[in-house]
Structure formats: structure tokens, C-alpha cells
What does this fold into?
Amino acid sequence: MSADPTRFTAVDETADLMERRGEPNLIYLELAVTGRFDVDRLRAAVRTAFAAHPATRSHRAPTPPWRTRSRWQLTAWPATDPLTVRTGPSLDSLDSLDLAAERRAILDTPLDLRDAPLLRLRLLTGAPGGDRLLLVAHHAGFDGMGFVGVLLAICAAYNATPQPPCAAPAPSGTPHAVPAAPGRVSGGPAHPWAPVPGAALPLPLPVAASGGAPRAVPAALGPASGAAGVPKGPGPGAGRPVLPVEAVRRPRPGLLPVRPVRVAREPAGGGRSGYAVVPLAFDAERTAALSRAARAAGVTLNDLLLAALALAVVRWNAAHARPTAPLRITMPVNTRDGQTRHDGQGNHSRLTSIGIGADSCAGDPRTLLAAVAARTAEAKAAPAGPQGGPAAVVLGAAWLPRAIRQLLAPGVRFAARALADTTMLSNLGPITALPRSLAGAGDITELWAAAPAPMPRGLSVTALGAGGRLHLMIRHRLEALDASAAAAFTELLAHAVTELSTGAPAPSPALAVPRSPEGPS
It folds into this structure.
């Protein structure tokens, strides 16, 4: 007997009950073009895409407390317009929109599952560099792949063309390359809201955080020997003590499950909370070089990014005198087949956890890459755990009435916070079905995605390929990292990607310790 398509799955139930007040469980996408969207045409395209994807018009029906599963209820068209238009500077106006503030506004406004639609769009139009379309969707209704499928449907409807089929994902163990797009304009005019950092590597490169000034980590890099000391010369690390990885305390093993380390915090002042993002782009030439380096090392590009993220966390924590192990990175795995890779209905991702030893990050880059590749292969080959992670065992249990699961949810959330992985890397792969341009709106120059990063994780990295370019977006909670700290971490991550791709021996990191001591993480 086939499953009732209107019933919540275990993943849907878990995504609903795990959401905490002040931390909306939303997936984020951002699309930039060189020209102007036609608002009426965009509204019509959204309506067409919504008709093709029922999840966009769904909401949670009233659920009696004794029922074991919530149910989705469809509406012909949501009562609330999903598209908001924000107008920026015009030729006779000096007013401007703040992209960082617009991002925060859409990321920090929750979507109520009781009300359709479960997807919201915000068009930022009028800036000289071109328009931007910001989108969020509730994670209970979509995963990252499915959300991208909805965006592709909107683009196809805008261009009045059938949506092209999506290429099948690379098989496990195959190097993940982002194909170049010959003749494609890989970049566009600098956008006044957010210049894309990282387009020109090798490093050092300035990385600008949303709403914050660039912060140069490379100037604080210490000697390759890793000895503790004080960085010399100008830069933000000058005159401050630094610590090598070996000098950092590490948790002792015990009988109980060991809590993974947290990314060392540099929170925003004044008790500020909420989400912010930092984009990092590698141009087509650099992306092709990364893919070649991964193939030469016998690993996938995803393995290289996992290793770079681990290296960045270890170096960041070492500089802050925080533990560097045990380090675990959540890696979602798409369980769709090749024909439904971007199916926009429901959640079809299995969460795996990749453990990476801090000792691996202190040696030869090839050793680290080999260790990460072995762990990802083990994770993909291991029997599938519960969809939605361990929390789904309770919150997604089909035999428990919803009222009981609601009572258990605070305890499950507490346990999940204690044992949550250090960070997350979500790799959506190359978006080959993305058109090169939109009719009358110009070339598509940027596409970004960002997975949620609830506390205590506080940081996630989402990767995708668009137009032959690798785009990484770092999403962070301001309670974990302020804008300046997030920019510094992003630059550290960019250095790690470059270092691993070149195969140069990885020196023991030595970064500047903040002036003010950090509180408990």
C-alpha cells in the first residue's frame, strides 16, 4: 500500500518539533542577475512554479492531540502573497538597501507551518549592479535539493521554457567537479549591496562579512613551525600571543558520549541574536583547478571541502585556546535517484556524521584528505540511520501521539544541543539546470544557498556549483560569531581550501587570540 502523500514523514515531524523560538528552521537561496526583473512576469512565474510543486501551497492541518501523524493540507493559492518587492536606489535617489539587513530580515522571520505558503521570496530591485532575489523555505516542507528544484521551476517559467531534466549526481567516490560553462559570463558588475569575495585566488584575499568590515586573518598567521609566540609586523594579530594546536587542551575520553567540540565563539555585543551570512566564491578557473587537485589526490571535491572545514575549525579553536577534538561534521546525503534529484516535494536527505581527528589536521594535507575520504566512504556505505537523525527516533515515532511527542520535544532538543555536531557541510553539487540568463533580466551571476545553523552549532557551510563557479556560503548565528569573526573564519576556510588543493605541507596554525577572554562555549 502506498504511503498517504498528505501525511507528515518522520523527517517532517522532527523538523517541526525541533524548531526553537528565535531560530527559524529555514533554508536560504539567493539569486543575482545583471539586469532588472519584470515584477509581473516574476509573480506569474512564481504562480506557475507553485502550481507544479504542491509543497509550496501546503500547510499543517489542525491535528488532534491523539493523532500519531500531522497532515499536510493543500490550498489552491495561498492567501498571503509569497513575493515582497523592495526597491533600492533609483537614478534620482541616494537611498540604498542594506543587503545584510535584508538577509537578516528574511532569515529571522519564521514561517508558521499552520499557514501557507511555506516559501517566501523577497526581490531587491533598483540597484545599479542588478537585482537580487532572496528566498527562504521551511525545512519541514523542503530540503536543500528540493528547494533548488522550486527555484529552477521559477526560472524556467520566467523564461517560458520547459524545465530541463537535472543531471544525475555523481556516484559515491567519484570526484565531484563543477563543470565550466563555455561562453558564460562568470561575473558581472560589482553589486552595491554585496561584493562577492574570493573571486580572485590565490590568497590572501579580503573577505567582507555582512554588515562588518573585512578582517585579515593571514596577517596573524604565525611561523610554520607552530611554536607559540607573538606575530610580528603589522596586522590585527600583532602583539597578541598565539597558541599552536598542540598546546590546546582536549577532552578526556569517558564512558558517556563525548560532546563534540564547538566552534570557538566571538559573539556580537549587546546580546544581539539572529542569522547572518558570508559568501565566498571561486571563479571558474580556480574551481576547475580545485576539481583537478581533488581528482589527482583520488578524492572528491566534497572530501576536499570537508577537510578544509575541519582544518579551519581546528585552527580557529587553537587560536582561541579552545578544544580541537572530538570534531564532527554533519554531511547530508541526498537519497533521491538521478531522475528526481531536485524533486521539490518533502525531505529526502539522510544526515551522516563525519568524525575527523585533530591530529590529522596537523600533518600532511594528503594524509588529511585520505582520512576524510575514508570516513565519507564509510558513512555512505553504512546502513541508513533514521531519516532526520537520532532525534527522529522519538520525535518522528509513528506510534507516539503528537501530544506526547510535543511533551518530549524539550528534552530531545536539550539532548540534541548537547550532542550536536561541531558544524555542517551541505553540498548541493553543480546546478546544471540553472539557465545562463533570465529573459530581460540579464545574466545570472550568482547563486547561493545556506543551511540552518542553530545553536550550539552556530555555523554551517553550504556549497554549490553555478556557471562553472564554486560558491560557498557561511551561515552563522550572531550569538556564536559576530560579523567580523565570521569574516575571519571565512578567510581561514578559503586559505584551507587553497592549501589542500595545492598539496603544500600544512603548517601548525597560529592565529591571533582575541583581546577579551571568551566565555564558555
